[in-house]
Structure formats: C-alpha cells, structure tokens
Amino acid sequence: MWYFLMSDAFTFGAFLIAYGTTRFATNGWPDPNQVFKSYPLAAETANAPLVFVSIMTFILIISSVTMVLAVQAGHAMKKRSVVINLILTIIGGLAFLGCQAWEWTHLHHEGAWWGSNPFPNADGTNATTNFTNFFFTITGFHGFHVFSGVIINIVMLIMTLCNVFEKRGHYLMIEKAGLYWHFVDLVWVFVFTCFYLI
Amino acid sequence: MEHTTHHSEAHHGHDTHAGGGTKEIIKVTVILTVLTIVELILGFWMIGMPENMKRHMIKATIIVLMMAKAFYIVGYFMHLKHEIKNLIMTITVPLLLFVWFIIAFLADGNSYKNLRNTYDRHHLEASKEKAKPAEHHNSHEAEEHGKEEKKPVE
User: Fold this and answer.
1) Other beta carbons within 10 Å of B42
2) For residue range B76-133, what is the model confidence (pLDDT) as tens digits?
C-alpha cells in the first residue's frame, strides 16, 4: 500500500509542479480570493473568500480523525466502534464530495470550465485558460480519489458487518483503507494551499 | 506494511505500534486544526496586499505550515513514524526527488517568462492589456474597455 501511495504522490506532485511551472511562466494570474468567494444559499451575493473551502478542509480533517479511530478500534477488535467510525468517515467523504459538486456547479455557472476562464488576472489583465484548466483537472483528480476512497470505505463497512474480519482474526484491511483515506486528506492539504491560499 | 502484518498477527488484540493511542490522536487533531486556522488567518491577511516581499514571506510561511501538516498526517495518522526504519527510508528517500523537481521546474518556468518578456515584445504588450469585465463578475480592477475581443494571451 505504501508503495502504491508513493506512486500516487508522484502523480499528484507532477500535476502540482506543472501548475507551479505554468504559474511561474505567466505574467499574470487570477486572484483566488476573487474567484472562490461564495458559499451555498448566497451564491450570487456572497463575498466571503476562503470560508467555504475552509469548511471543506475541516470536513476532510475530521473524516481522517474518525478513520484513525476506526483503525484503532480495529486493533482492539471492537467491531461496534469500527462500524460507527467507518460510517462517520463515509459521511465526511460524502459531505466533502457534495461541497465540491456545489463549487464546481457554481463555477460552471459563472462560465468557468476546461478551456474557458471568465476571471481576469489579479492586476486586471487578460487571463489565459490555464487557471481553470489546472483547477478543474487537479481538484477533479483529487475528487475522484475521494470518491474511490468512499467506495473502499463502504466495502470495508460491508465486510465488517458481515464479520469477515472477525473470522479472519484481524482488521488489517481497515488499516490499508485508512492509509488510502489519509493520503487523500494529505493531497488536499497541498491542493488547498496551492489553489486557494497562495 | 509487511512489518505491521507480522507484528499484529503475532499478537493481535492489543495495540502494538500506535504511539500514544487516543491521546495522541486528539493531540494531532488539535495541532492540525490550529495549523489550518493559522494558515487561514494568513490567507485573510494577504487579501488585497500587493505582490511584494511581505506577501512572498507570508506565502513562504504558509508553505512551511503546509509541510508541517503533511508531516503530522503521514507521521501520526498514517503512523509512518512508528514503522521500522527501512520502510521509512524506502518511502521518504524517493520523495526527496521532489526537492529537485520543484526547484528545477519552477526556475525553468521563471526563466521562460523572463526570456519571453525580453525577446517577445508582442507577448509583453499583449499581457498588459486589460480584460473587459464579465457581466456577472464585477471586478473593480478592470476599468478599461479598450479591447473588444478577449483573446487568449498564449
């Protein structure tokens, strides 16, 4: 599992380095605080940069914590606790995906998509489509990882409920699923910083 | 993974390699939350600040905090810190390649920009054109309506 995650880290690293290189090679870049400033229920009027994305970040951190608790409960062979924490993790993952779906929909309504960037650069000059291309590709790839993580966690939940791990005598599969889930959280730390903060 | 497999199969039922158990998890959660909040405070502070040395220093601080968060997630949540040394080495040493990757590629991008601005006057002029504001995006910086066509710079 660790070696798979290392290869995945190189994939994401390559994406983010490509983004950084392009950004260093371009004269102007859109201001993320101008682009990501809304949240649900007030999509048109809101002017609250960083607020919505910080909620998404905390959702993912908390779901990582519940996953650690599930792994720990697995070590102690507490089936009930494993089930509860896995369900919480799945809810966290789905909440994150919901937030991302809303954000994508909102940006799409504003005219942003692959190959179309309605946001001018921070200094008011014409922007290239690089910004939206990288944003949708990288957050999309990360979102797909979150989605597969949720699927893996659901499989783990079903296996736990069917007593597969009880019969096997250990919960090591939960630990492997946990490693994947933490990796997804880890990637978000980098994506969040590179796209929303800097 | 192999290490933990043998270990836990040998005496499953009790925590063999988690450092401080639940206490440690709570501690790391608090650290991650605090680091994120500090990052957000710095992010809010940067809003509207011009691209100067101060802003670059804040960005550098945010990157340092990001690395600290990555360390806590990998070290404690993924408990790489409690694995045997050989596994830690086989994972972290290849990742050191990123140090070179990042320096090389970002320097390359920067040099490309400078060369292009120096030798391609058209590109430099084109990148100074003000964008016309989009209907549903009231950007107060884009005042000039000079260009009718919004053509991509590159």
Assistant:
1) 15
2) 888 888 888 999 999 889 899 999 999 999 999 999 999 998 998 888 888 887 776 5
Provide the domain limits for residue B105.
96-131
Q: Is B46 exposed, middle or buried (0-12, 13-18, 19+ CB in 10 A)?
A: buried
Query: What is the domain partition of chain A in residue ranges?
Result: 2-21+68-197
Coil, helix or strand at residue A169: coil
Q: How far is B56 from chain A (nearest CA, A)?
A: 9
User: What is the value of ipTM here, to two decimals?
Assistant: 0.84
Q: Does B6 touch chain A (CB under 8 A)?
A: no
Looking at the structure, tell me whether residues B74 and B104 fall in a common domain. no
Query: A2-21+68-197 maps to which CATH number?
Result: 1.20.120.80
Q: How far apart are the first and last CA of chain B?
A: 47
Q: What is the pLDDT of residues A71-116, one digit of tens each?
A: 999 988 899 999 999 999 999 999 999 999 999 999 998 888 998 8
Q: Do A2 and B1 touch (CB under 8 A)?
A: yes
Q: Does A183 touch chain B (CB under 8 A)?
A: yes
**Does B36 map to a domain?**
yes
CB proximity B40 to A under 8 Å: yes
pLDDT tens digits for B43-80?
A: 888 887 777 888 889 999 999 999 999 999 999 888 88
